[in-house]
Amino acid sequence: MQTWYVLLAIAAGAVLPLQVGVNSTLRQGIGSPVVAALISFAVGSACLLAYAIASRAAWPSAQMLGKLPAWAWIGGALGAYYVATAILVAPKLGAANLVCLTITAQLLASLLLDHYGLIGFAQHGINTARVAGALLLVAGTVMIVKY
């Protein structure tokens, strides 16, 4: 079962640069990174709605929604920021530079979230191996962005 999740994660990572390229093309065609991001989210929302209906996903009750912490509602805003920013900077940085920079930032932020067990993540302390891996990723990013 773990292998299935690993494959899903790899596939999700592989489609990110494709998404950026498609969204950048959309931006070029309509002229606005914000409107391109909005269109991207609208299409994505329609796909998720269709999947939720088709899979007969359980809808949350008002009581369930009311129990959520206030910060649980910002995920869509964070996604919108990422998509709009990627659409804006991808034509300037290129796919490899954008992906290297965002993955490095994701890893560094993830190490902190895991270390302190924040926002629902299990606590996994920072250790020498994790720091070494992060430094290798930073070094690789510098090599790709600089050369």
UniProtKB/TrEMBL annotation:
<feature type="transmembrane region" description="Helical">
    <location>
        <begin position="125"/>
        <end position="145"/>
    </location>
</feature>
<keyword id="KW-0472">Membrane</keyword>
<dbReference type="Pfam" id="PF04657">
    <property type="entry name" value="DMT_YdcZ"/>
</dbReference>
<keyword id="KW-1133">Transmembrane helix</keyword>
<protein>
    <recommendedName>
        <fullName>Integral membrane protein</fullName>
    </recommendedName>
</protein>
<feature type="transmembrane region" description="Helical">
    <location>
        <begin position="34"/>
        <end position="58"/>
    </location>
</feature>
<keyword id="KW-0812">Transmembrane</keyword>
<dbReference type="InterPro" id="IPR006750">
    <property type="entry name" value="YdcZ"/>
</dbReference>
<feature type="transmembrane region" description="Helical">
    <location>
        <begin position="70"/>
        <end position="89"/>
    </location>
</feature>
<feature type="transmembrane region" description="Helical">
    <location>
        <begin position="95"/>
        <end position="113"/>
    </location>
</feature>
<dbReference type="GO" id="GO:0005886">
    <property type="term" value="C:plasma membrane"/>
</dbReference>
